[in-house]
């Protein structure tokens, strides 16, 4: 009976979409290991690095910082039993890593049988986790258009939420620091101690912001090196000479979904080219112009690649998912030359969306600065007005845009093309 249970679990995991893979893994592991919640943390999924199932009190509050800290302390791939702060509370956890993608699995409040039965349960857990981690790798590597679109939307939303948190907590902590540094307070030791705590909290908050940026952006040189590693097996087992022309090391960082799309497109082009006769050399080049990632792939075959082939049509869909363009020039007897342009910023919506809000000139200025991530104090300084006046304009913006928070206002402004 247990063998059939395991086979069904393997089948379900092999077919699970990314947005349900945590739920499917939890269902698969419950017969072997009981836990209040299951959390997967993988930086390969730029849009949704956390995949969670179980106790809502845990999965709704667990943070990237907590998972990052636990993953850094993991002595190996596990399973590792320890205690850690998860969802703001010290808990018993069972953690497993996956070295190829640096993914992390965390089970909170785990219950495992003792003796040989428990050892067998942990082996099954490890097996199912490795299968899941590889499934995630494969899905991200494929980078279908639906994944790229979801990733772009989720990445933008996380940046907006982080900007709001920074605005809220930085102002509070800066006020606290000003009060504690006041000369009217005579308890110097207490003042110094609390000041240190507040400074540390500010640093932690900035670290969360930086960490979020790291998850949604990838240095262009790093992204290109990952492409090279992905294509290394093809270079090793084929007779094709693969040449790489690297982008400038100081080029603009790529949004995560653009980096994934770029690697997927180049891999797909190289595989399509490798199927053509008499191809001996392929050259892949990346460059940046500050606004776009420019990709060029060229081969020395007979020019048999056609724009209407199924493989090229699929790649066109991936390029279009991130608002890019791809052109194919085939030279009979000389090979193919493919150019791809991937914008690094989402497209702007028609300006009519903004006009419909009927904003006063000053309100539009405040909204633009708000959308750029500026805090009230910074907006006041930029516009030479008081913070109270900024708050007044923000309240008016909420009313005219029919939103209830800065996050909603920023999201709506982004959708209308404001930058």
From TrEMBL:
Its BP terms in the Gene Ontology are:
regulation of DNA-templated transcription
The UniProt record lists the HTH luxR-type domain at 352-417
Native species: Paenarthrobacter aurescens
Name the keywords, alphabetized.
Answer: DNA-binding, Transcription, Transcription regulation
Report the superkingdom from the record.
Bacteria
Tell me which Gene3D superfamilies the record gives. Histidine kinase-like ATPase, C-terminal domain (3.30.565.10), Winged helix-like DNA-binding domain superfamily/Winged helix DNA-binding domain (1.10.10.10)
Pfam families, A to Z: GerE
Q: Which InterPro entries match?
A: HATPase_C_sf, Sig_transdc_resp-reg_C-effctor, Tscrpt_reg_LuxR_C, WH-like_DNA-bd_sf
A molecular function (GO) held by this record is: DNA binding
The name of this protein is Helix-turn-helix transcriptional regulator
């Amino acid at each position: 009976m247990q063998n059939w249970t395991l086979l069904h679990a393997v089948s379900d995991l092999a077919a699970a979409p990314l947005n349900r893979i945590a739920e499917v893994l939890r269902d698969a592991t419950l017969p072997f290991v009981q836990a209040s919640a299951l959390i997967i943390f993988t930086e390969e999924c730029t849009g949704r690095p956390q995949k969670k199932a179980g106790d809502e009190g845990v999965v709704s509050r667990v943070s990237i910082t907590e998972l990052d800290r636990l993953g850094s302390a993991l002595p190996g791939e596990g399973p590792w039993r320890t205690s850690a702060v998860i969802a703001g509370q010290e808990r018993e956890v069972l953690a497993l890593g996956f070295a190829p993608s640096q993914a992390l699995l965390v089970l909170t409040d785990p219950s495992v049988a003792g003796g040989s039965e428990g050892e067998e349960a942990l082996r099954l857990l490890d097996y199912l986790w490795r299968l899941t981690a590889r499934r995630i790798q494969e899905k991200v590597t494929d980078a279908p258009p639906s994944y790229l679109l979801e990733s772009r939307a989720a990445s933008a939303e996380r940046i907006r939420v982080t900007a709001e948190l920074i605005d809220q907590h930085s102002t509070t902590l800066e006020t606290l620091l000003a009060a504690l540094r006041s000369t009217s307070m005579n308890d110097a030791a207490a003042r110094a101690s609390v000041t240190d705590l507040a400074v540390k909290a500010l640093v932690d908050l900035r670290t969360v912001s930086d960490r979020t940026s790291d998850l949604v952006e990838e240095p262009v040189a790093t992204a290109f090196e990952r492409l090279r590693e992905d294509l290394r097996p093809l270079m090793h087992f084929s007779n094709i000479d693969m040449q790489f022309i690297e982008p400038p090391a100081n080029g603009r960082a790529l949004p995560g979904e653009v980096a994934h799309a770029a690697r997927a497109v180049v891999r797909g082009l190289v595989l399509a080219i490798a199927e053509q006769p008499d191809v001996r050399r392929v050259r892949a080049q990346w460059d940046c112009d500050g606004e776009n990632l420019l990709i060029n792939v060229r081969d020395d075959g007979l020019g048999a690649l056609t724009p209407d082939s199924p493989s090229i049509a699929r790649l066109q869909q991936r390029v279009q998912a991130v608002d890019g363009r791809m052109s194919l020039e085939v030279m009979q007897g000389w090979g193919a030359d493919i150019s791809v342009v991937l914008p690094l910023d989402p497209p702007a919506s028609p300006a009519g969306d903004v006009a419909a809000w009927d904003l006063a000139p000053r309100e539009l200025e405040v909204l633009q600065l708000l959308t750029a991530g500026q805090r009230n104090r910074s907006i006041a300084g930029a516009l030479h007005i008081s913070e109270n006046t900024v708050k007044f304009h923000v309240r008016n913006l909420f009313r005219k845009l029919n939103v209830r928070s800065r996050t909603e206002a920023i999201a709506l402004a982004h959708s209308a093309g404001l930058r």
